[in-house]
Write a structure and sequence with these properties.
With 224 residues, the chain is of the alpha/beta class. It has helices spanning 16-29, 46-49, 66-77, 86-90, 97-103, 197-200, 205-216, and strands spanning 3-10, 33-37, 54-60, 81-85, 105-109, 114-121, 135-140, 143-146, 151-158, 173-183, 186-191.
């Protein structure tokens, strides 16, 4: 059976324990053996990390020490998958540029707070997004700084009505929402959706996360 480790914690405003439970249940249903931990210490244990197929971070903000940062980066480079969503992954460890380099982006703002916005599927042939139609989300809409190397699977349009701010004079932009990236031999999947467990578990988002886990995990990898 494929194995996954969920690491949860950090700022409680993103409900890390509850989101971790949503992911644990989803992974178990996909046939994974899942371990969860509320500590970052396992990320420093490279030999143990290399026994995994998938790492799922659910940790908003916080800090990685040098050993933890090196451990997770080396594990992914050597083939362990990495997959997660919103604050648990690309609003984690804000001071760690290596983490941002690996994950492919960094949250910077959610103008307008809670809004109704559209997620546009831009790659309709990828294993993660195949047969998924554009959909609506009612939650915070996230503005990110992104790596030009990511493979974008879905976007959302900024600015959305009600999301006024100093960014608006720049005109409309398509902001990545779902993407993949390669890090050495490892695969990375990210969704910017997921302020809390209720949003994370809505469909089709939860299906996208399930597929992203399968795509990224070392022993269950789906084709591009």
């Amino acid at each position: 059976m494929p194995t996954a480790l969920i690491v949860f914690g950090g700022w409680e405003g993103h409900y890390p324990r509850q989101v971790a439970e949503v992911f644990r249940a989803a992974l178990a249903q996909e046939g994974f053996t899942v371990k969860t931990t509320g500590s970052l210490d396992p990320l420093a244990d490279l030999p143990q990390l290399l026994t995994l197929d998938l790492l799922v971070p659910v940790w908003t903000m916080g800090k990685l020490n040098g050993e933890q940062s090196a451990g997770i980066s080396q594990a992914v480079q050597q083939g362990v998958g990495l997959a997660g969503c919103h604050g648990g992954m690309c609003d984690a460890f804000r001071e760690n540029s290596e983490w941002q380099f690996m994950t492919g982006g960094q949250f910077v703002a959610h103008p307008g707070n809670s809004l109704n916005y559209t997620v546009h599927i831009t790659d309709k042939t990828h294993a993660i997004t195949r047969d998924i139609k554009d959909f609506q989300v009612t939650s915070e809409q996230y503005y990110l700084h992104v790596d030009p190397a990511i493979k974008v699977l879905a976007t959302t349009r900024f600015p959305t009505p009600g999301a006024d701010g100093p960014h608006t004079p720049n005109g409309a932009v398509d902001m990545p929402v779902l993407w993949t990236k390669l890090w050495g031999q490892g695969r990375v999947f990210y969704s910017s959706i997921g302020h809390d467990d209720q949003v994370v578990s809505q469909e089709p988002h939860l299906t996208l996360m399930r597929r992203g886990f399968q795509w990224a995990a070392r022993s269950t990898r789906k084709s591009a």
